[in-house]
């Protein structure tokens, strides 16, 4: 069955709650609480009360088993029509952008007219598991009918069984944390401490300026007493950041690494006709996307370097160069990871040996990079970052009146999700 023709995918806008530092103001909020708040804020913003949308696609990187379909439960908790289908996806920190791409593809194919994509995460309410042996006993206990059998099982309980299984911010195949992996890449690419601190300080200064000029007034809904991203420190300067001690490798600190964060974001996507019928202006269009993965286990590539591969493939398909953009939104998992990616794109050997290209992609105009701040300042609630970036870039393009923006997000598991927005 062939589709009848592709439709343009319009980004109508986004809504998110301010991002909070882990174990801060959202410590008692669940993923479902936060995502419902972000979704319901989107409903208010765009008059979607009672609307039956094509679908809601969203996800969380860290999820309790009770949230087997977080997106659907959040729809039922929101003022969208209860007849809106919803499902969860997960691609680590690429989740939010991948959700946008999923919904966009269905809009493009004419399978749905409009949908919401989003993501949420909380490291304050991480899903703690129980000891494997205790789990086995509890499962058997649930199946055993006789009192004697149950009592016999209970005698197998040991004090060590109360040790919880807490999810680690680490790669299962290497045992190394994201920060430790990023530190290896930073060393390989010779990324200096000073340039990392400069990028981090700029992220804070840009985000603070954007809040001050009201840029986020129609993108961020106050929640649980927060009206701005809690991690934001407008007074961040390279001099202050230079004083912090390294936490990963020799150059990465708490300021040039993202903090553990809680938060949620949503984006409304639609075809032109749907938007026009509701008199909703289009901010920008999603025109291309690409996902890549690298073999960081055996292939000698850095864990967070997959966007360095996804972007050239996407540019080739779009017939564009790296310089053909007005804005670059490169997720700041770590300052060193952004800088390593930019350096790789300028490197002749990387172009030839890793990308199979004759020439490197070249440098970008750094004044176009993360102009309203990014994850180092806003924080990084893993699955919520993609929605934050898409909504921010769409609004930037709308403000400019025309242009093109590149989104690049690295993800755990050696993956990268990228996209192009145009006005
Ligand atoms: C997951 C994916 O798929 C892909 C990705 O995105 S990978 C990224 C995933 N994210 C991560 O791995 C999170 C990494 N971050 C962490 O683990 C932790 O935040 C961390 C270990 C880096 C730091 O944790 P911490 O020590 O609790 O940080 P915190 O106490 O806030 O800060 C340490 C110090 O730096 C200071 N500091 C932090 N930012 C600052 C700033 N902008 N200006 C001035 N000082 C600052 C703090 O004030 C604090 O100072 P004191 O010790 O004097 O109080």
Quickly describe the structure.
Belongs to the thiolase-like superfamily. Thiolase family. With 423 residues, this protein is of the alpha/beta class.
Describe the structure in your own words:
It contains 14 helices and ten strands. Strands 1, 2, 3, 4, 5, 6, 7, 8, 9 and 10 form a ten-stranded mixed β-sheet that branches. The chain has three domains: 136 residues, Peroxisomal Thiolase, Chain A, domain 1, CATH 3.40.47.10; 35 residues, no CATH class; 200 residues, Thiolase/Chalcone synthase (Peroxisomal Thiolase, Chain A, domain 1, 3-Layer(aba) Sandwich), CATH 3.40.47.10. With 423 residues, it is an alpha/beta fold. Strand 3, helix 2 and strand 4 form a beta-alpha-beta unit. Helix content is 35%, strand content 16%. The longest helix has 20 residues. The radius of gyration is 22 Å and the shape is globular. Bound molecules: acetoacetyl-coenzyme A. The site of acetoacetyl-coenzyme A has 24 residues, from helix 6, helix 8 and strand 9.
Features:
binds acetoacetyl-coenzyme A; 14 helices; Peroxisomal Thiolase, Chain A, domain 1; alpha/beta; 35% helix; transferase
């Amino acid at each position: 069955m062939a589709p009848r023709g592709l439709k343009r995918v319009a980004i109508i806008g986004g809504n998110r709650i301010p991002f909070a530092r882990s174990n801060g103001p959202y410590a008692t909020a669940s993923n479902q609480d936060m995502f419902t708040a972000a979704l319901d804020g989107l409903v208010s913003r765009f008059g979607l009360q009672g609307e039956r949308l094509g679908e809601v696609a969203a996800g969380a990187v860290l999820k309790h088993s009770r949230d087997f379909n977080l997106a659907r439960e959040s729809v039922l908790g929101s003022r969208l029509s209860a007849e809106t289908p919803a499902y969860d996806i997960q691609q680590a920190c690429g989740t939010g952008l991948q959700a946008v791409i999923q919904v966009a593809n269905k809009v493009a194919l004419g399978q749905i007219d409009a949908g919401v994509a989003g993501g949420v995460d909380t490291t304050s309410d991480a899903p703690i598991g129980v000891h494997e042996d205790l789990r086995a006993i509890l499962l058997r206990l649930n199946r055993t009918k006789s009192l004697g059998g149950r009592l016999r099982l209970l005698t197998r309980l040991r004090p060590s069984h109360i040790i919880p299984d807490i999810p680690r911010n680490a790669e299962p195949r290497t045992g190394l944390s994201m920060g430790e992996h990023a530190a290896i890449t930073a060393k390989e690419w010779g990324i200096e401490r000073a340039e990392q601190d400069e990028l981090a300080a700029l992220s804070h200064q840009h985000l603070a300026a954007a809040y001050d000029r009201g840029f986020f007034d129609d993108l961020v809904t106050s929640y649980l007493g927060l009206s701005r991203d809690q991690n934001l420190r407008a007074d961040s300067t390279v001099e202050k950041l230079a004083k912090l001690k390294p936490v990963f490798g020799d150059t990465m600190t708490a300021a040039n690494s993202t903090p553990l964060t809680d938060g949620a974001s949503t984006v409304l996507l639609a075809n032109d006709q749907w938007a026009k019928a509701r008199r909703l202006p289009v901010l920008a269009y999603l025109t291309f996307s690409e996902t890549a993965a690298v073999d960081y286990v055996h292939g000698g590539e850095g864990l967070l370097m997959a966007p360095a591969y996804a972007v050239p493939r996407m540019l080739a398909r779009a017939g564009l160069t790296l310089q053909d953009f007005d804005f670059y939104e490169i997720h700041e998992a770590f300052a060193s990871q952004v800088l390593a990616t930019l350096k790789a794109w300028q490197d002749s050997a990387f172009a030839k040996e890793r990308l199979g290209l004759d020439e490197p992609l070249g440098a970008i105009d750094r004044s176009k990079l993360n102009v309203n701040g990014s994850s180092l300042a806003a924080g990084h609630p893993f699955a919520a970052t993609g929605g934050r970036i898409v909504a921010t870039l769409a609004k930037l393009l709308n403000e400019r009146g025309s242009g093109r923006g590149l989104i690049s997000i690295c993800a755990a598991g050696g993956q990268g999700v990228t996209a192009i927005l145009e006005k």
